[in-house]
Amino acid sequence: MLNLILFGPPGAGKGTQSEMLLSRYNLNYISTGEVLRKEIKAESPLGNKAKAIIEAGGLVDDEIIVQIIGNALEEGQRSDGFLFDGFPRTYVQAYILDGLFTRLQTSLTRIFILDVPNEECTKRLLQRAREQDRSDDKASVIEKRLEEYHQKTLPLLDFYESAGILTRINGMGTSEEVFERINKHITEELNSRPANIILFGYPGAGRGTQAARLASDFNLRCISTGELLQDEVREHGSLAEKIIPFLEKGLLVPDELVIRLIEKKLKETDGTGRGYVFKGYPRTLVQAYILDGLLKKQGTSISCVINLKVPVLELISRLDARSHTAARMPYDGSAATIVARLQEHEQRTEPVLAYYHQQNQVIEIDGTGPDETVYQRLREPVLRAIKNMK
Fold first, then answer.
1. Please, which contacts does 244-248 make with residues 24 or more away whose CB atoms are closer than 8 Å?
2. What is the pLDDT of residue 332?
């Protein structure tokens, strides 16, 4: 998930930047004032408590605030993340927010501070007062608001600076220029996140082509069990003689052989990219559990599963055409082996897809049409899945 806090003095342009961030990244906007008003309007138990305190001239305490913000977080989990305005305002509330995120198994991504000189803020607010006929934006009132902001913000800056997630943004210039400065940091953050993608689809669906594009685009290492098996045979590896009979018949190679090749590949490529694209693995439920375990050892997990959907007749046509090229696979040799491979895929691999469907990780993609068209269909959902990783 992408969880942000946007700070800045009155007049820094937080409202404009918030709107642009919400639109670009499908975030849920959480403002302390808004969630309080919502609870009060709904006449919920928390809202009634807050209303009584406010009507008595008091400040709503953190015990109520934490519950109201917690409710808003729970309600907004279907978005791609959260953007906070007006919370946290104190050192204590910063710890509260950390606790709330921990409960949701996520964390704060970054806090942005819009740096704008007091003189510029005052100029902007006075201009707004003239344009909107706002009598409350007087020079003396503005000065007090700016002073209060700086006094309250300093302790929070220390809290987040020590956590290494605070970024100062030059707030001068056009709204678009400021947004691009913010967006540059968000893009870098998303591009650095670990990512592991499974590319699903029947033989002939185009997994090899799309896997190569994903690996190049997202700085991933491609792991193809088919290629690993072919390399082992071609290089006369220690497992070659055991593998050959299965490849010749178009059957799945036993897990105890495949897992050894994958472990070797993971060790060779560890630390050389942000993650992996898995093509041709897992093909069984057992292999799905094995892959979960392998990635857990590396402190990561599956980001998403792409399922390339192509009609059966087109699959057969593609595989037959491939059999006449240098890219042919052993089971491309005849109609019988092609059909056997497709049937086995359906019988043994469909339960794996169902397994990932249960975890809401599957992205269904139409695999027909030119390769570039198919890639454009899957790229945006992949980006979103990586962004939504908790």
1. 247/330, 247/331, 248/330
2. 57
CA atoms within 13 A on the CB side of 256: 1
- Sequence-ordered strand ranges (E) for the chain: 2-7, 28-31, 81-85, 110-115, 166-170, 195-201, 221-224, 275-279, 304-309, 362-366
Reduced to 3 DSSP states, what percent helix, strand and coil does the chain have, rounded to the nearest 5? 60, 15, 25
CA distance 343 to 74: 43
C-alpha angle 115-120-123 in degrees, rounded to nearest 5: 145
Measured CA to CA, the distance from residue 97 to residue 101 in angstroms comes to 6
Mean pLDDT on 210-233: 88
Note the pTM of the prediction, 2 decimals: 0.70
Q: How confident is the model at residue 334 (pLDDT cuts 50, 70, 90)?
A: low
Picking from 162, 191, 220, the residue at the C-terminal end of a domain is: 191
Residues 373 and 247 in one domain: yes
